[in-house]
Structure formats: structure tokens, C-alpha cells
């Protein structure tokens, strides 16, 4: 099972993500971000691309889509908090959103 990030690696991994709009949730067990697109099709295209990546990683986001926004929460439920898997998926999501 993937291990929770240590305090030091967590701080290091989170810094660049916080700069792109990710935030730690209360309690620190997850990170979240709201992605906003120009329309519903772009938002749904983002979700479709990320869904394929998430399935390959066997790591799945909790997310909500309303019109052109997608609100994402990432946490490793098996570990009870943040792991390297969440960091990797967050980076991939930022990349996919930037390619849109
Ligand atoms: C058996 C399977 O690997 C696990 O249930 C995976 C699937 N996807 C997952 N996704 C997330 N976000 N957290 C998990 O703990 C998790 N566990």
C-alpha cells in the first residue's frame, strides 16, 4: 500500500501545486482545486482525459462537475491521507487542463 507522505516530502511536493491553485483541505487529508473551462464540453473533455489517466494509475478522484467547472478532491483513501499518488495525479490534471 502507498504510504502517507512524510512532513518534509509533503511540504516539498505541495509547494508548486499550491502555486497553481491547489489547496489543502481542513485536516490535511486531501488537496482540492476548482478547474474552470470555457464551456461544458471543455470541462467534460478534461474529465474524460483524466478518467483514462486515473484508471491507468488505479487512483481515482472525487470530483463534481457543474456546467463549466470541475471541483476535484484528491486523497488516498487506503492510506487515510495524502500520498505520492495524489501528487502525481494533481500534476497530471494541471497538465491536461493546460493542454485544453
Ligand atoms: C483496490 C484498488 O487499488 C483501491 O481500491 C484503489 C482504487 N482507487 C483509489 N483511489 C483513491 N483516490 N484512493 C484510494 O485509496 C484508491 N484505492
Automatic annotation (TrEMBL):
Gene Ontology MF term list: 4-alpha-hydroxytetrahydrobiopterin dehydratase activity
Highest taxon in the source lineage: Bacteria
GO terms (BP aspect): tetrahydrobiopterin biosynthetic process
Keyword Acyltransferase: no
Signal peptide span: none
EC number assigned by the record: 4.2.1.96
Pfam annotation, one family: Pterin_4a
Catalytic activity: (4aS,6R)-4a-hydroxy-L-erythro-5,6,7,8-tetrahydrobiopterin = (6R)-L-erythro-6,7-dihydrobiopterin + H2O
Keywords for this protein: Lyase
InterPro entries associated with the record: PCD_sf (IPR036428), Pterin_deHydtase (IPR001533)
PANTHER family (alphabetical): PTERIN-4-ALPHA-CARBINOLAMINE DEHYDRATASE
Record family assignment: Belongs to the pterin-4-alpha-carbinolamine dehydratase family.
NCBIfam families, A to Z: PRK00823.1-2, PRK00823.1-3
Protein name, as recorded: Putative pterin-4-alpha-carbinolamine dehydratase
Annotated organism of origin: Celeribacter baekdonensis B30
